[in-house]
Amino acid sequence: MQADPLSSAMATLSAGLESPLSASPSLGSGAAGAPPFSDLLQSAIANVNQLDSQATTAVQGLMSGAGVDVHQAMIATQKSQMAFEMALAVRNRAVTAYQQVMQMQF
After folding, report:
1. Where does this protein reside within or beyond the cell (predicted)?
2. Average pLDDT for 26-38
3. Could you give the CA distance from residue 44 to residue 59 in angstroms, rounded to a whole number?
4. Phi then psi dihedrals of residue 48, to 5 deg
5. Is residue 88 classed as helix, strand or coil in its secondary structure?
6. Contact 91/46 with Cβ under 8 angstroms?
7. How do the domains of the chain map onto residue ranges?
8. Most trustworthy range by pLDDT among 14-23, 29-38, 71-80
9. Is residue 36 left, alpha or beta, with left meaning phi > 0 and alpha meaning psi from -120 to 50?
10. In this model, does residue 13 exceed pLDDT 70?
11. How far apart, in Å, are the Cα atoms of 82 and each of 16, 27, 42, 63, 69?
């Protein structure tokens, strides 16, 4: 059975968030062996794109009568929507954090 892309993306993101930060003073260095945040973000975006294309294929199959059930199309559409909303929430949090950093006075 193939793993659900959304749950694998969530597991990847949560694994990256749960790992402790390195004590190294250099910028961009995370825990030893942990992938950089940019890799996690790119993986999550790729999963969102994959779910979107699966939903599009399922809806097109439903509309053309290619043997796709309504349930399958709706589930694919909802997975795609939830993944997009999660990505949008991450983006909003990143923008908020950036704005807070830019407002800091040293």
Report:
1. Bacterial flagellum basal body
2. 70
3. 23
4. -65, -45
5. helix
6. no
7. 37-106
8. 71-80
9. beta
10. no
11. 20, 32, 17, 22, 20
